[in-house]
Amino acid sequence: MADVEIKVPSLGESETEATLVSWLKQEGDSVLADDVVAEVESDKITMEVVALEAGVLKRILKPAGEQVVPGEVIGLIDTEAVPSESVKQPSQDMPIEPETDSSHTPPAGETVAKAKKAAANMPSGLKVETSPQQRDDRKEERVPMSGLRKRIAERLKMAQNTAAMLTTFNEVNMQPVLDLRKRFGEAFKERHGIKLGLMSFFVQAVAQAMAKYPALNAYIDGDDIVYHNYLDVGIAVSTDRGLIVPVLRDAEKLSLAEIERGIADLAKRAREGGLLPDDLKGGTFTITNGGVFGSLLSTPILNPPQSGILGMHTIQKRPVVEDDDIVIRPMMYLALTYDHRLIDGAEAVRFLVAIKEALEYPASLHLNL
């Protein structure tokens, strides 16, 4: 008999434990090499545990819900065993109803009649009400927080307790960017094989503004300020498990097409659970887009230890004044939350204005057609 161990995969340098979320195979089930047999969830991501060899899942050593560490053995696969016959489950088409004792249950008509009689005997003006205890549609459900949700809560509270967060606002006329996408969108997709979205313009605009105001790309470490000569942008992605912020590396060097491809890859893997621990580390600035959900305005919270986060919002047509004329333009509110310990208000405002100007005059942003 040859047993192969099922081990918890590496979670990255800063991750020392995780939660065994679920077993996708049960004892006695046959497995193939590279089959996903379990899932573990660290503070940041959910990772799949795969079988190294084919065989039968002989034993589960750690039940779902337990804490595990990288390299820990959580199960055994017998590579020489024959799968046992599966236990038949009740048909989904024939649900099993619980047995009832009709001798203690009055007919429905009798119950209704008694209720009407009670109401008739009550003084005028009083109503018959069902107390909360008598209702069967009022329910509560208590479930433990996932490791990811707990980590999100901890980091957001840490940001509030640590940084001196302040938010400044501006609005940007998106007409130039929308016109550019309309004019060159097809050629861009044909040339680069990907759709020209909005996020790439914002990433490049942030990169240009960072060159003038590097403090937005720095962070406080004790009594020191740590500056970066590179821009690793965290792109907030909403998933079924919560908000995840994968990182686009060296964004200041990327073209619009490279940014679009990078973001598409990160978002896809974030929603499918395919991110690696290193995909979530080391961001120097974050962009979040609440506009995809219809948010008109918000005050985003910093992603520690970063000193800045840019909030995008929904594009809404509004009347604006141009050359003393009132015109309708597609406008977007921008919100910049920054750490006031490191960044003065004037610097934050100028940084946001630089982003606004880059978007309203996008000739400096390279399409690379």
Notes on the protein architecture:
By secondary structure, the protein is an alpha+beta fold. It folds into two domains: 3-78, OB fold (Dihydrolipoamide Acetyltransferase, E2P), CATH 2.40.50; 148-364, Chloramphenicol acetyltransferase-like domain (Chloramphenicol Acetyltransferase, 2-Layer Sandwich), CATH 3.30.559. The protein contains six helices and 19 strands. It has helices at residues 108-120, 147-162, 175-192, 199-212, 256-272, 345-360; strands at residues 3-7, 18-23, 30-31, 36-41, 46-50, 55-60, 67-68, 73-78, 165-173, 219-221, 224-226, 233-235, 237-239, 242-244, 247-248, 285-289, 308-312, 316-322, 325-339. Strands 9, 12, 15, 16, 17, 18 and 19 form a seven-stranded mixed beta sheet that branches. A four-stranded antiparallel beta sheet has the order 1-8-6-3, with no helix packed on it. The chain has a four-stranded antiparallel beta sheet with strand order 5-4-2-7, with no helix packed on it. Helix 4 (199-212) packs across helix 5 (256-272) and helix 4 (199-212) packs across helix 6. Residues 85-114 and 116-126 have low confidence and may be disordered.
